[in-house]
Amino acid sequence: MKNRSFHLDKSNGKLMGVCSGIANYFDWDANIIRIAFVLAALFGVGAPVLIYLVIGLIASDR
Fold first, then answer.
1. From its phi and psi, is residue 17 left (phi > 0), alpha (psi between -120 and 50) or beta?
2. What digits encode the pLDDT tens for the residues 39-54?
3. Residues in domain Phage shock protein PspC N-terminal (predicted)?
4. pTM surpassing 0.85?
5. Exposure of 40 by Cβ count < 10 A (0-12 exposed, 13-18 middle, 19+ buried)?
6. Rounded Cα–Cα distance for residues 29 and 22 (Å)
7. Where are the domains positioned within the chain?
8. Shortest CA distance to 12 belongs to which of 29, 26, 2, 4?
9. Cα–Cα dist 59/18, whole Å
10. What is the pLDDT of residue 35?
11. Can you tell me the distance from the alpha carbon of 6 to that of 61, in angstroms, rounded to the nearest whole number?
12. Which of 18, 26, 38, 49 gets the most CB atoms within 10 Å of its CB?
């Protein structure tokens, strides 16, 4: 198992690099993560915009 750590991917990111960072961490396509965030925001599942901002602010301090 490889040693993974989460980090923002600002070079491939669209806004803050959160979705790209999540995609890199799980080795998924960033577009899938972006679509999931948009759908969650549209359908009101939890608080995806707030979660996105919190992840972006916390991870940027690293």
1. left
2. 998 988 778 888 888 9
3. 7-59
4. no
5. middle
6. 9
7. 18-60
8. 29
9. 8
10. 94
11. 12
12. 18
Q: Which two tokens stand for residue 19?
A: 């979705």
Structure confidence at residue 62 (pLDDT) = 60
Tokens read off for 28: 């998924």
Tens of pLDDT along the chain (62 residues) come to: 466 777 787 777 778 888 888 888 898 999 999 999 999 989 887 788 888 889 888 887 66
Q: Which two tokens stand for residue 62?
A: 């690293």
Q: What is the pLDDT of residue 17?
A: 85
> Is 40 within 8 Å of 48 (Cβ atoms)?
yes
In contact, 18 and 8? CB cutoff 8 Å: yes
